[in-house]
Amino acid sequence: MYIPQEKYLRTVKAELQQRLNIISQWNIQPGSRILEIGCGQGDSIVILANLVGEEGHVTGVDPAPLDYGDPFTVAQVHANLKSSALGPRITFEQATLQEHLESNPDTQYDYAIFTHCLWYFGSPEELNPMLASLRGRAKRLLIAEFSLDARGDRTTVPHLLATLAQGEESSRVAGVNYDSNIRSLHTPISIKKAASEAGWVLDKESYVDNPPEALDGRREVQAVLSKEYEKGIACEPDEIRRRFAEALVEALKAAIDSLGPGEEVRTMSSWLGCFA
Amino acid sequence: MYIPQEKYLRTVKAELQQRLNIISQWNIQPGSRILEIGCGQGDSIVILANLVGEEGHVTGVDPAPLDYGDPFTVAQVHANLKSSALGPRITFEQATLQEHLESNPDTQYDYAIFTHCLWYFGSPEELNPMLASLRGRAKRLLIAEFSLDARGDRTTVPHLLATLAQGEESSRVAGVNYDSNIRSLHTPISIKKAASEAGWVLDKESYVDNPPEALDGRREVQAVLSKEYEKGIACEPDEIRRRFAEALVEALKAAIDSLGPGEEVRTMSSWLGCFA
């Protein structure tokens, strides 16, 4: 896929700004040893590696295939980061958290971090054992995920509704549409519940608004308004579930139509939880 | 249940105003013969009987039990209306539409009207045969139902989300929770589709804002935030469906929390369709 360079840079900048807004809330100290779970292409890693300084280290684990990603693959971006000045402070590992912890049984971390990755999990039940396995391995647990909260702003209502629509889809066709961005709809409450069950104690929670340029909201809206999504609904054999899925799409379209001239879909704010 | 008279009168007034706003869009002529389906206690009938004048007539059919309703039952309200000056222009029949049409095979109507009753149907599939049976018996078909559209107003987002939550519930436990207000989530698109399949042609559609005093939004929010609703979700054996239902309730709570000081939940606007 060809993306004009200017547009691509704008997107990258917005994504980095979003991560920076989140991570700057966590007051991470130089010299920290960090484990980032579900690091993807490494958007947060760049910022974290900068914060921990020369004495610190950031390990990013993600089981995603290395050829995932567009216009650059995971492998390309990782190689680029590794060859940068921050390279020595970064380790990437293509592995699940479990694999990583088992193959490094003595490594301890100051922070275990999940930034905007829980919704990609194959199933919401995967979170509990992960959080349990981090007990005794990390001093603090930091989690950021989009909230289900439009925060009174009508330009974020479409992102909320597109998220609910995909949450409905994933409750109906779990495992089938692996391309969906929201396969595992976690919320502040479900995250706090999972953390508590794993023995973590909530220290602080807050919300961070995302920059207007962040594309997550628009991307989720496009996914739900796609022909493919419509086809998926049309295949649903249960009439009443199909109707409910259609109603969610209709509510989304209405929310977009209600935006004023010049108003664009904005990404919802992120919820941040800090556990000890 | 005891309701202070002043509060009860305010509620009745808001409900009548809401129906008046809707019905006044339809330009109903004096002398008209009207069939109202799902007339309930007769909120719309009062207004319609007034509009059609002495030469007109309004027949209201509803299969609901006559002891339904609080603080006054359907039977009480009907008896009261029948004994009023408008009484001679009104006929109430405890019957389904099918029963009514079959027992009055030669009666023709100028209008067949559904005002805010489709969501009470036991199943959304009930609408199609009803609309088909009205072909040749009524010249025009007028339908009003709440839209799934917050219309850019954050005070109506809770009504939208409470509606979606109950739509989800009815897709999961159809027929079980007969007390739910939304057992059959129809939307402008699903209504237009059903009408078209039954041979009706859309003449005009529009939206009408509901008065700030209308209680529908607050009532649906209360229903979803009730202990009973929570218990219903907790019983859901399918983990992923239970989580999605919980997420809808959480999104609703967030939408309420985001209201400013003095802001109250407002009822969504109504969608109106006029078919010939």
Provide key terms for this protein:
seven-stranded mixed β-sheet; transferase (chains A, B); S-adenosyl-L-methionine-dependent methyltransferase (chains A, B); SAM-dependent_MTases_sf (chains A, B); methyltransferase (chains A, B); globular; 7 strands; 10 helices; 276 residues
Description of the molecule:
- Chains A, B: This is S-adenosyl-L-methionine-dependent methyltransferase.
- Chains A, B: Pfam families: Methyltransf_23 (PF13489).
- Chains A, B: Keywords: Methyltransferase, Transferase.
- Chains A, B: GO terms for molecular function: methyltransferase activity.
- Chains A, B: InterPro entries: SAM-dependent_MTases_sf.
- The structure is a homodimer of 276-residue chains.
- Chain A contains 10 helices and 7 strands.
- In chain A, strands 3-2-1-4-5-7-6 form a 7-stranded mixed beta sheet, sandwiched between helices.
- Helices cover 42% and strands 16% of the residues of chain A.
- The relative contact order of chain A is 0.15.
- In chain A, helix 5 crosses helix 7 and helix 6 packs across helix 8.
- Chain A is globular, with a radius of gyration of 19 Å.
- By secondary structure, chain A is an alpha/beta fold.
- The longest helix of chain A has 19 residues.
- In chain A, strand 2, helix 3 and strand 3 form a beta-alpha-beta unit.
- The interface between A and B is large, with 41 and 41 residues.
